[in-house]
Amino acid sequence: MAASSALAPPGFPTELHAGNRERLVAALRGKLSDSARPFRGLALLQGGEEQNRHCTDHLELFRQESYFAYLFGVREPGFYGAIDIASGQSILFAPRLPADYAVWMGEIKPLSYFKDRYKVDVVFYVDEIAQVLQDKFSEHGKPLLFLLYGKSSDSGNYSKPATFEGIEKFDTDLSTLHPIITECRVVKSDTEIALMQYANDVSSEAHIEVMRQVKPGMKEYQLESIFLHHAYMYGACRHCSYTCICATGENSSVLHYGHTAAPNDRTLNDGDMALMDMGAEYSFYGSDITCSYPINGKFNSNQRIVYNAVLKAHNAVISHMQPGVKWIDMHKLAEKTILESLEKENIIHGDIGAMMARRLGAVFMPHGLGHLLGIDTHDPGGYPEVRYGLE
Known about the structure:
Strand order of the largest sheet: 4-3-2-1-5-6
Helix content: 25-40%
Structural class: alpha/beta
Strand content: 5-15%
Order of helices and strands: HEHEEHHEHEEHHHEEEEEEHHHH
Number of strands: 12
Radius of gyration: 24 Å
Mean pLDDT: 95
């Protein structure tokens, strides 16, 4: 039977990013008020740029920088965005495209298009940034720009603060914006949750389609291809949240299998387990689904033991989750449940408490229990180190 879907892409959420900007302004005002500072200045972010493949003229498929996507929803490269803290006014700065862009890339859209699509107050060209900000926001002296600069504790990389010709004429603040906007991204609005739900629904369908078609003799990359096709064909999901992990047999124990050096290319054998970790992305918001199953449809005894140990831990965590429960306690519960299951099957021997104290569970689950999800797979990129006393 040919694949199909009852899902319908929800369209562009026109008011979502305006709401995100409002939350940021409120949070910034609260921070400034707490430190007895005036509501003066602009949050200024620089969007992502298109990247060529090394030295060639091949443009890689662009995906917007996540903080910029959160606030403005702009899918095109080369933009800047500003938000006035005092008034809440939002400004986009679009790249001024050359005339021959229309020949090679398509219609050059007027500034009014971006104003209407992204629900901002005004739009200018990028080459007008310095003049516009000076003209509109120098009433109280040199304008103050809050720039995005901070560390992702997941990657160790730093976000890129906006820069433009003439920025030396402005006062800049590199420390205030990043922790505040990062905290804003943690709590999702109803619209964000709906987009994430849609991305997960599409991904769930795609996983089921892979499960329907998998059989011995196939290549792992064929499973990836089935997933990608379904997510794009029926869900309008052109991007994935992360590189697909289509691991079978011994590859299933490699946490981030599927990268260029391990490219989902093993041949599936009868009796293999498959571990499929794939998630589609829709309108910047992502999903993350992992499932494991025997490719011939039947667990052997050893596979059943391990699968049921993980399933029992999964169910235990879900049954204990509620407001006020600490994440680390849920991680320990999962570890303990897995160890108990393995001890019961005589795979390991000894006192569970002693095993927990020595972190034996990390041998079987070397990663964390889970992670936040949103515009990024690990949204918004770890945890604020100052808040948790790590700096």
